Amino acid sequence: MARDVSSPFMPGQPVREELFEGRQEQVDRLLRLAGEADRGSLRVAFLVGERGIGKTSLAHYVLTAAERRHDVLSAHALLGGVRTLDEMVRRVFDRTLKDSIDRPWHEKLLKLFGSRVRQVGLFGVTLEFAPTHDELAQVVNDFAPAIRQISKATGKAVCLALDDINGLSGSQEFADWLKSLIDELSIAREPVRLFLLLVGLEERRRSLLELQPSLDRVFEVVDVLPWSAVETQDFYRKAFATVGVSVNQDALEMMSYYAGGLPVLAHEIGDATFRHDQDGVVTYEDAFWGVSTAAEVVGRKHVEPKVLSAIKSERYRSILSKIATSLEFEFKAEDVRGRLSEAEKKVWHNFLIRMRELGVIRTVGRGRYQFSNQLHYLFLVMALRGEGQGRWPRRL
Ligand SMILES: Nc1ncnc2c1ncn2[C@@H]1O[C@H](COP(=O)(O)OP(=O)(O)O)[C@@H](O)[C@H]1O
Ligand SMILES: [Mg+2]
Predict the structure, then answer these.
(1) Which long-range contacts does 186-191 make (Cβ < 8 Å, 24+ apart)?
(2) I need a labelling partner for 76 at 20 to 30 A (CA). Which of 43, 227, 250, 277 fits?
(3) Least confident piece of the model among 124-128, 174-178, 283-287
(4) Probe residue for ligand 1, chosen from 57, 203, 205, 237 as the CB with the greatest number of ligand atoms within 8 Å
(5) 297 and 311 fall within a common domain
(6) Lowest mean pLDDT: which of 117-121, 160-164, 333-337?
């Protein structure tokens, strides 16, 4: 790239506020809940959506806006890979501390946490919540009073996001802990000003409910859905404009088509396109190149190796390319079978079993299947579409 501006796209990181696109309705709902917590009610929401759809970014955006608009302090705990309650609670308070560093209530929290705060890092610049083993066990049990103390000491309501609870959602211990926390807070004589925002995949929400069905009544479910084409194009226009790059309409349409409404893909495509463009005008050619490059990046970064290795089989690839003829998520086995060659028909049955085992597709009715993950699907579409014609992505 000739220019020395850096890419406005940030695949894999929560989006910067000025590039945050769409989600107005969800933002409004979540801010309303934060406001209610501020006024003394306990609120619990569950933000659901597939990987890469923008849950973490939305949670981040809402917490920042809530701090500005209401009298709240926020903490965003990323719990990917966390499997125990102890570790979860440690991270929650660690985040509460770290996220307060540049905030007016920092000193008050430091005083409250007292000797459990340790300075770490070469120059002692990072703070860490480091309780003893026994203290931690106690905070797990006394989570509600701990939140109340934080709220009292700082004079703020607490907005707490438990993000990526995937490793915890199958745990009976976590489900029971959550249930008793909510029960305890609901019957407390003195209200606790807490907005608890759980974030995860829909199937994790369901597994949590299986373990503790009564949680169903307390969660307000907020769905994060794919962007519309208009939102995707808006996002591209905005992002490229921040670095002084304009985008031709046909290029916009191409990028938006292949992103399929999934922000994570929009960033990968935008990033690759930005790096290819030399003259500050994104043309169809640039976008074409960007989409092709992004398909590879997406495959490498986001699709599990076992799926990639399964689709190395030439017959599987050709079957998939026949399924991926439209941007439909669902397909009927019968329809696809009709389009297969004799050789493909021989492996068709095994193909369906294998793809189901790998979680690429799932059954949704008799002889009807659906791709279970938009990332898989779009990667396959992007990578395989037009492969038969010796070139992809397909020209629109
Ligand atoms: N509303 C949005 N506007 C712009 N970019 C977004 C938005 N939501 C997500 N992104 C981008 O999409 C990618 C995936 O978002 P993320 O919030 O990590 O998704 P999830 O938590 O659902 O997996 C990130 O690169 C992020 O910057
Ligand atoms: Mg996330």
Answers:
(1) 186/42, 188/144, 188/148, 190/148, 191/40, 191/41, 191/42
(2) 227
(3) 124-128
(4) 57
(5) no
(6) 117-121
The pair of three-digit structure tokens given for residue 247, joined into one six-digit string: 């985008």
How many Cβ atoms from other residues are within 10 Å of residue 305's Cβ?
Answer: 8
Kindly report, residue by residue over 215-273, the tens digit of the pLDDT. 998 899 999 999 999 999 999 999 999 999 999 999 999 899 888 889 999 999 999 99
pLDDT of residue 188: 83
Contacts of 135 (CB under 8 A, 6+ apart): 116
Q: Are residues 175 and 106 in the same domain?
A: yes
In sign, the C-alpha dihedral spanning 18, 21, 24, 25 is negative
Domain-ending residue, one of 271, 302, 333: 302
- Hey, what are 125's tokens? 């610049």
Number of domains in the chain: 3
Name residues contacting ligand 1 (CB within 6 A): 10-15, 19-23, 49, 51-57, 235, 263-264, 267
Q: Please give the residue range of the domain that contains residue 313.
A: 305-389
pLDDT in tens, 89-103: 999 999 998 888 888
CA distance 221 to 385: 35
Cβ neighbours around 296 below 10 Å, total: 14
- Pocket of ligand 1, candidates 234, 264, 375: which has the most ligand atoms within 8 Å of its Cβ, to mutate? 264
Residue 196 lies in a domain: yes
Q: Give yes or no: residues 119 and 44 share one domain.
A: yes
The domain that holds 204 is classified in CATH as: 3.40.50.300
Beta sheet of 368-371, edge-to-edge order: 330-332, 368-371, 361-365
Can you give the pLDDT at residue 393? 54
